[in-house]
Design a protein that fits this description.
The chain has two domains: 325 residues, Alpha/alpha barrel (Glycosyltransferase), CATH 1.50.10.20; 261 residues, Glycosyltransferase (Alpha/alpha barrel). It has 642 residues and is mainly α. It contains 24 helices and four strands. α1 runs antiparallel to α12. The protein has a two-stranded antiparallel sheet with strand order 1-2. The protein has a two-stranded antiparallel ribbon with strand order 3-4.
């Protein structure tokens, strides 16, 4: 119910002060994005100091930093300070038990094996206490040979296990038409970016001289490593294991010119998939593609190698842990969805820097055809997941940029360009709708990959999540909301199918939704549905029921997102919104005045965001102050009082 009329009290100044402080921290994060030409950083060599690095807007797990340290034995690109910085980040994440943890907080075999290996490669004594504990954890969990595909790939490239212990892919798959179920074009873009260099590396076979990790393997009494099972238990797994062995035998037989034609196509795809920013689809496919180029004979000064290493450097930055900054290898360059959200906060606060950043966002629009159009019928348009990319549209980023463009002042000089970009984005969003009514993030069909049904241990990474996971619900709700804001009504058949799909997800999977997904559903239903609509009522009831006794909804970012959802559902701030606002203001008030912007952001906390491939979750350190600034600004605009 709407909050009762209140007289103004001195605490109103606290609200303005909290907005000012959160907005200042958000502006600092916007500077870290290095918008425009400053995004490019020079390549440092081992004889020069590394270029100054900004703070990462999205922070992945240690896996990428470990792989960069291992691969530097081949590329010799890291400066000593960079090697020490990456190793320091890996050490800081190690637990007293010796393990590195997974996203759920349990010991992770793959990360622990990579962490041990990377620290040894950086010069740590393998018999040091922290590495002995890590090795013990690896052995307790079954040995490094039972790790993820990335661990086993590095073990094979280092010569610690035969390539026959990894899954086999016939090169002839790349000759299949794009509509074939087994065509690599049917898997998710991230998986395709990994499968292609993986095939070339396994065909070579590639060899990288790195520090020995043989002590991480479980062995028989005769010293031979124990063969890991590549498939899941059961009849289907046994049949697939037999099929895999058959393919490996066939590879030894003469296959005529077909194999040569297939490998030539694989190499052409690998070269053609390099994007304008110099990388491939995120950092891990870029790293594997660079190694594959070296295997194909490319020299260190090859322009493709140079551009790829430059991309890896631009995706590197600082992250704070326990109050200290560390150098971290990021998953991508600055994600456009986060950058657009930071710009949106500036526009809400009438900060001139917000409108000044609009040309950067408009310049990042995809203007050429790409692989994302394989199963869609749309012209070029929309925005990619990171700055400088040009081959993959990201529905999440497109919605975030549209949100910023729609907040432009009506008298802005960028209105004509913005409206043209929005018209093109509408066609892209409509083309991203799946037959079931939901929306894809990168390509249609990315969540329903036929090969992901195979009982392989790593088959799930071939798909971009499941067809019904919360990340897809969030993307679908955001797409429907933006289409509604651009003129589509609920009675449009495409919007109706989308709402029906959301209703099915709400009635089946509601208990598993986090506050971010709930808030996005609230914003979507408030835009498209009348107050009596069951979807809107159900979402509102569940959202209100998540508030705690202290007025919060959990973490600060959850509180801020819940506030935004509630304010969209009510014409005026209600008492629950008021209590949430008081909680956020109190958090900002209680922070010491001399606290730096990065430390203030760490105090408020970030958010878990969807990652890519093997890095399924990342930290968004700007999330807390960014969403708090936007929520409190909106609260003040609607006449809310503390």
């Amino acid at each position: 119910m709407p909050a009762p009329s209140l007289t103004r009290v001195p605490t109103e100044g606290r609200l303005r002060a909290a907005i000012t402080r959160a907005s200042a921290a958000t502006a600092w994060w916007r500077e870290q994005a290095a918008l425009g030409p400053a995004l490019a950083r020079p390549i440092a060599t081992t004889t020069t100091s590394p270029a100054p690095a900004g703070h990462l807007l999205t922070v992945p797990d240690i896996g990428l930093s470990c792989e960069i340290l291992l691969a530097d034995r081949l590329f010799h690109d890291l400066a000593p300070a960079e090697r020490q910085g990456l190793a320091g980040w890996i050490r800081a994440n190690q637990q007293p038990s010796g393990a590195w943890l997974d996203d759920a907080g349990g010991p992770d075999l793959s990360r622990t094996a990579l962490g041990w290996w990377a620290l040894v490669e950086s010069g740590d004594d393998p018999e040091a206490e922290h590495l002995v504990r890590a090795r013990r954890i690896v052995h307790e969990l079954g040995g490094a040979q039972r790790g993820s595909i990335e661990v086993r790939l590095w073990l094979a490239m280092a010569g610690h296990m035969p390539w026959a212990w990894l899954p086999t892919m016939p090169a002839e798959l790349w000759l299949l038409p794009t509509l074939a179920w087994l065509s690599p074009s049917r898997v998710s873009p991230w998986a395709r970016g990994v499968m292609t260099p993986y095939l070339l590396l396994s065909r070579a076979p590639a060899k990288v001289h790195v520090s020995s990790a043989a002590s991480l393997l479980l062995t028989r009494p005769d010293g031979e490593p124990i063969l890991p099972r590549l498939v899941q238990p059961g009849l289907g797994g046994d049949l697939l294991q037999a099929f895999d062995q058959s393919v490996k035998l066939i590879r030894k037989l003469p296959r005529g010119p077909i194999l040569g034609v297939a490998l030539a196509r694989v190499q052409r795809w690998l070269i053609g998939a390099q994007q304008n920013h110099g990388g491939w689809f995120s950092v891990r496919p870029t790293l594997l593609s660079l190694i594959a180029l070296r295997v194909m004979g490319a020299n260190y000064d090859d322009p493709r190698i140079v551009r790829g290493l430059s991309y890896l450097r631009r995706a590197r930055g600082l992250a704070r842990l326990h109050g200290r900054p560390h150098l971290v290898q990021g998953l991508t360059c600055p994600p456009l969805a986060t950058v657009a959200r930071l710009v949106r906060v500036a526009l809400a606060a009438s900060d001139p820097a917000g409108e000044a950043a609009i040309p950067f966002l408009l310049a990042e629009e995809i203007r050429q055809s790409g692989e994302w159009q394989l199963r869609t019928n749309a012209p070029a348009g929309g925005w990619p997941c990171e700055a400088g990319a040009d081959k993959y549209v990201d529905t999440h980023s497109t919605c975030a940029v549209l949100d910023a463009l729609l907040a432009l002042p009506k008298d802005s000089g960028h209105q004509s360009q913005a409206r043209a970009a929005m018209r093109r984005a509408v066609e892209v969003l409509l083309a991203m709708q799946e037959p079931d009514g939901g929306f894809a993030r990168f390509e249609r069909g990315e969540s329903e990959v036929f090969m992901a049904r195979f009982p392989l241990r790593d088959a799930q990474i071939l798909a971009a999540g499941s067809p019904t996971d919360p990340a897809r619900v969030c993307v679908s709700a955001a797409a429907l909301r933006q289409l509604a804001r651009l003129g589509f009504q609920a009675d449009d058949d495409r919007i109706a199918r989308g709402l029906q799909w959301l209703w099915q997800r709400v009635t089946v999977d509601f208990a598993g939704f986090d506050l971010g997904t709930l808030a996005e559903l609230a914003l979507c239903s408030a835009t498209l549905c009348p107050p009596t609509h069951p979807l809107r009522q159900t979402v509102e009831r569940q959202l209100r029921g998540r508030q705690r006794e202290d007025g919060s909804f959990g973490a600060p970012i959850d509180t801020a997102l819940a506030m935004q959802g509630l304010m969209a559902l009510e014409p005026r701030p209600c008492i629950q919104t008021q209590r949430a606002a008081r909680h956020l203001v109190q958090l900002l008030d209680s922070a010491p005045a001399e606290l730096a912007q990065a430390a203030l952001s760490e105090r408020l906390g970030g958010a878990w965001t969807a990652g890519l491939g093997l890095s399924r979750l990342c930290q968004d350190p700007s999330g807390g102050v960014r969403e708090a600034a936007l929520a409190l600004t909106r609260f003040a605009e609607q006449g809310g009082q503390l």
